[in-house]
Each structure stands twice: as structure tokens, then as C-alpha cells.
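Team,

Forwarding the record for the chain on the shared tracking sheet. I've put the sequence and predicted structure together so nobody has to dig through attachments.
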Amino acid sequence: MNPKEALQQIRALFEDMPQVVEPQAPVAEEVTKVEMAEYSLADGTKVMISALEIGGKVEMADGTPAPQGEHQLMDGTSIQVDETGTIIEIASPKEDIVVEEPVAPAQDTTAMSADLKAEFAEQKSQLETKIAELESKVKQGFAQVAELVEALSNTPTAEPTQKAANAFQSYVSSNDTKYERLEKYRNAILNK
């Protein structure tokens, strides 16, 4: 195998490897605008309420969350608001019935846990297989690179066209002859 063939094989080995996908910047969550209805409190203050039910948002006219505590609307309905402006309790003026937040139905967590464990094990085995495959390709690539380096080190090199020592000698000897000629001219001028 010559060096060009080795390089082509190495390139082909790495070209069919999957490309690493760079993580992308997180996408901002899309904010949905909630329709707010205007209500008046017993003292005449205007507030905006998304839904007159537990979980509804209460905002002041300037858009800030309503202060925590109990607020009474003009119709006599009393609402209890937490620190984020979310309604946590509603009391009707006719009946003092407290509406509680609906409770989600219980789910079978053991079945969900088993499903998640099975899915995790499957993905783990797929990942381990892929890693072993990639490690094998990398080892082959390094072996081929080592062969290429060895082949290049065994390639004969050409002798230099001119030896450095000879170039220096020719320069020195040519300067010596110039010096001798200059010395001859100087002597001739001085002896006139």
C-alpha cells in the first residue's frame, strides 16, 4: 500500500462516521397572551383578572401582580391572592363556599417507572453499541495513520544539489582573488 492509498482509506473511514451535532441555543418559550377581564374592587380600584377561578391571574391596572391577601370585588365576591398574583381561594357573597383546586387523578407511578426504565435500558444499549462501533473505526484509523507514517519514514530522500561547505569555499576563494587584484592595483598606484 502506498501513502496515497493509505490516506484515501483513512479519509473514507472517517467520512462515513456520523457528524457531531453542536447544541443549539435554547429556543425562547412562546408566550401566549391571556385575555384579561377588567373588574373593580370594593374600594374602586381597577384590576385585570385572567379567569375568575382558582389559578387565575390578578394584575393591577399597571400590569404588576396584585398584592398578596384577600380582595373583595364590587359584587361582593372575595378572592384570596398569593404573592405571584394567582387566585388561591374564592368566596361567593351568597354562600361562603370555598372552591378548592381540582385534584389530578392518581397515576400508576410504578407502571410509568417500569416503562421509563425499559426505555432507558434500550437507549443505553443502543448508545453502547454505537460507541463500540466508533471506537473500532478510530482504532482502524490510527493503525492506518501509523502505517502511513512508517511508509513515509522509509521513503528515500534525495541528496542536496550543492553541499553547504563547497558553497562557502567558493565564496571565500572568489573573495580572496578579488582582494589580490585590489592589492595589485593599490601597489601599482602607490609606486607610480
